[in-house]
Amino acid sequence: MNNSTAHTFHIPVMGLGFTIDTPIKVAKYGISSVVSIMEDHLIEEMRKVHSKNYNKEYNPISAKDIDRRYKRIMSYLNLMNEIVQDQIVELRKSDFTENSELTKYFSLLPEETNAKKLYRRMREMKDTKIKRGMQKELKSMVLPGSIDVNIMTKLDNTNLDENGNELPEIYSDAKSALKGFALSDLSSSIIFSAGMNPKLFSYCEQFDDFFPNERGEIKKKVILKVSDFRSAQVQGKMFAKKGIWVSEFRIESGLNCGGHAFATNGLLLGPILEEFKEKRDELFYELYELCKESLMKSGRNPMLKLPSMSLKVQGGIGTSEENDFLTQQYQLDGTGWGSPFLLVPESTNVDDSTLSALINSKREDFYLSNSSPLGVPFNNFKNCTSELQRLERIAKNRAGSPCYKKFLSFNTEFTERPICTASRQYQMLKIKEIEESNSSPESKQKQIYKTLEKECLCEGLGTSAILTNKGQLSHNLTAVSICPGPNLYFFKETYKLKEMVDHIYGRANILTKINRPHIFYNEAILYLDYLKKEIEDKSEDMTEKTRVYLQGFKDNLEKGLNYYSGLISTVKENSKIRIELMASQIESLKMKLNKLEVVGCTLK
Hints:
Layout: E1 9-11, H1 22-26, E2 32-36, H2 40-53, H3 68-93, H4 101-108, H5 114-124, H6 128-140, E3 147-152, H7 173-182, E4 189-193, H8 198-203, E5 221-226, H9 229-240, E6 246-252, H10 269-298, E7 310-314, H11 320-329, E8 334-336, H12 352-359, E9 366-369, E10 378-381, H13 385-395, H14 424-435, H15 441-452, H16 457-468, H17 497-504, H18 519-537, H19 544-571, H20 582-594, E11 596-597, E12 602-603
Parallel strand pairs: 1-2, 1-8, 2-3, 3-4, 4-5, 5-6, 6-7, 7-8
Antiparallel strand pairs: 9-10, 11-12
Helix pairs in contact: 2-3, 3-7, 5-6, 9-10, 14-15, 18-19, 18-20, 19-20
């Protein structure tokens, strides 16, 4: 565990708005969380809301300002930092009364931390003078959780000036967001997700905070969200060669996660974590030598001591036993708990209607969709209001969305300037093209369905934050999109923050209504279903390249299941978790996998 953090878990980024102000809610308890900084319209509205809530001065940043994106992002991050620092000051001034925030801070801590051990001794202490001294020491140990930010590297559109002319690259979506973080007061981390963006990574070199200062300290740290070891190694080297140290690799399940899903080529989480465990030291020293050499050549300050490099995992964790098993078996530094916190109103922004729909959901309501305009599979929820709105628009022969924010405008099939595939403009043009084609009626129907499946995420993924904070809605659009991981199905109530944290640390169990299989099984069945659908979808247009890909996917999945069979016999005597219960389930998955035949792309 990293001694600079109070907790062994973090709350990952969720959507555009669900964790947009989570640091204000949980950082005072030492809990780190991640904010999306891609949607500057939403960020500006939230800055206005929280400036009013906390009596801070608010000066609006005009949409006409050429530097509006980085200024809005920087100003909001500074505001959150100021609010959290104020909260910590007040916390340290308060007393250890039964229901105080200070008492809550220490009650939430994991049991094995030095601060929690001292807190327990303090409560049992009878000597008043010694007790006061212990309380003073405890107050000095209060640390805020980190206010980290996330950039999805693929969202890097070129922006335009007032006259419709393209602005220079530094004004693009991702680069201006990076600038906003880099120039903020924060001493925290930026998480780069969704793969490589060499130009964005190179832009980091423009900001000194990403490099060691004269004391060897790095104010702005880099975290890479990755789905396998190779990705970590390739991207880590890209940064190291620039003299930028990657302080953490955040390993996320390819399919058992929320939001966009980047399926690995059949590689399952267990084998991936095993590879990180085996090659961790090799990766560390390779990156360290590259980084040290680069800093020396560039004349920058050196790292005065060996830096730390954390490994954490997220995606689909649901019990304290799983949490402990993963960290102990694979020697990890922590875990990320995302979707379950959507049911904790104290920590995230989910409107009442969506909360009710999530609580009363069925398993099939959580599904992997093609609704994202990015063209990447997207974990969706059938009963959200944005889905109802999408169907209503189709029924009224008004398919598609008005496109105001244009963050996902990448398509140039019909227009010179990129437009979004969820927009009304694109869908009308695309459907017209399909209807005028020579395709069969069945093929036309399939193509139209795929076209109409796209939905506006720029608006929908931020709306809930505005609704719950009573802010000003963009163009009065009230429909909410939400993208939980399938793991959320097993959580069937709203929870207090303390209930969820106690569940994570094994002090309570909130999963009493549904029998929940192990995380490894849950992920494996997602991959099996994914492969089956891929085979079905590609059966009509099979190429040799596709056949090789599908066969490789199947082979990797088979290796992963065999790994789990071996793992069960290895750990069952030494682990708290009753992982041996997976044995029959894994064998069942092996039988199903063997029935899938890739050659000729048919199903036996």
